[in-house]
Prior knowledge:
- The complex is a heterodimer of chains A (313) and B (253).
- Chain A has two domains: 3-213, 3-Layer(aba) Sandwich (Rossmann fold), CATH 3.40.50; 218-300, 2-Layer Sandwich (Alpha-Beta Plaits).
- In chain A, strand 7 (147-151), helix 6 (159-172) and strand 8 form a beta-alpha-beta unit.
- In chain A, 40% of the residues are buried.
- Chain A is elongated, with a radius of gyration of 24 Å.
- Chain A has helices spanning 34-41, 63-68, 85-95, 100-113, 129-141, 159-172, 185-191, 209-217, 231-239, 253-262, 277-287, 302-312, and strands at residues 3-5, 8-11, 23-27, 53-54, 57-58, 70-73, 147-151, 177-182, 194-199, 202-207, 219-227, 244-249, 265-272, 291-298.
- By secondary structure, chain A is of the alpha/beta class.
- Chain B has one domain.
- Chain B starts with a helix and ends in a 5-residue tail after the last helix.
- Classes of the chains: A alpha/beta (313), B mainly alpha (253).
Amino acid sequence: MYKNFGPYPAVIDVSFEVLKGEIVGFLGPNGAGKTTTMRTITGYLPPTSGNITVSGFDTVKYSLEARKHIGYLPETVPLYLDMTVIDYLTFMGRIRGMSRKWVEERIPKVIDHVKLGDYRNTLVGKLSKGYRQRTGIAQAILHEPDVLVMDEPTIGIDPIQVVETRELISELGESHTLLISSHILPEVSTICPRVLVISDGRIVADDKPSNLSQRLSGNERIELGVSGIDPQSAISAIRKIKNIIDVRSDTRAEKLDQASKENYHSILVDTKSNNNSSEKIAKLIVDNGWGLRNLTPLPMTLEEIFLQLTQDK
Amino acid sequence: MKNIIIILSKELKTYFASPMAYIVAAAYLAITGFFFVASVSDAFSEASIRGYLAGATFFMIFMSPAITMRLIAEEQKLGTLELLLTSPIKEAEVVIGKFLAAFITVIIMVILSMYFVIILYIFGDPDTGPLFNGLLGLLLYASSTLAIGLFASALSPNQIVGLVVGSGILTALTIVDFVASRIQGIGSDILSFMQLGASFSVFDLGALGVAESGHFADFARGIFSITDVVFYISVTIVFLLLTVIILESRRWR
């Protein structure tokens, strides 16, 4: 589908299919078209051209039907601050076409599920951000939708609550088809088995997080801990191995800390993949009688994948 | 219909859970009470609610947009509008539900003020027909001011903008006779016809009975005119439709 705002294209030829039960991460920088795509899926905006089908219903032609099958959590969690959690959920359920009886049965379950039990009669305006987020998630899953669409579900909440929210989302993935957008890259790779990368309104990649790094990199990064030798000689020795691209001291603060405490040097090695570089490095260290504390191949981070994907274009 | 009632009951709950409705109701009773007392406390006053109607129509210029200002603006600001419009519910149902909530709030205020009428019946001998005709006119007038207020609320996520624009439109439509009487020809006729509020001279105790323009004039005098009824209902419908169009406009913007 395509979506223009006036003369400006926001989403260009985005086409994908999400199967029942899949968890898909929608990854892109701010302004890439994530929110616009999600708004067209939820029926808030119609696409300029192309079409979108949710649970078999076209979001423009059978908009009301399609909406019944979607649970939506927009980026700014939409809450009525002057209602209690229960009143809010009751209203949202009723507006989604749930019967009074169904709403009454369903709310205690949902509140338990998102662990809001202690706050059921609290005014939404008095909840912390993390609990507001849960209330937002609760309204999205209340009517047992087939499809859950969540726009940046962990934005702006504190780190502990981020972890809890992620766990909750992973759990939801077991019973729903899930589409989550994010610009926080590690988040998507922990939750989603499949990632769509969008940039400037186009999909630039659609794959597993692990495949993405392999497909793109051609390079591997190895984290190395050596002792019994000064780091400079170690680095120059490793450099001489074939197919090694770069060797340098690891300057990440937490690694430096750990290394100096335990009296070894942490080194990062970039190498071409499929060359058994790890074995060669290990052999070199052992042959020279140095101490080998660790040797860990690092997957490429999504930040790097993302940079590469958008620059290739 | 079910969706309208869900929206309506939610908005009514919100009104009466916050101090806003009570403050507005108190102000309404105080101001209309003042006008009522002023109009019936002379030695040979007429036992009518004309003074009350003057106060009510005047105060609604500010009161109606104050009641409606949060209805849509707040939803835009909180982001709940996006949720509402991605629920299986039509824009028109949202607008009608919200309008009815505001209208019922005003009807409750008018009912609260009915002790004026009881006082009239105890101490005087009012004409029942014109009295209820006046109240009917007041409700019709109220519905069109609320529709205009709701329209203003949809224009921006800022409630104050809704209040100022709504009151501005209502003020302009009330004092339009000042302009109409100073120009000639068809322009003057059109402007006079657009006069929503009551020309204040209708209520001027010294000028009672003098024919004045404005769709409220006949109601104030106790005359039932189908033209005025149709006018107020049309204004209400037109502004509710405009509100729906604003909400739908995101689709083709």
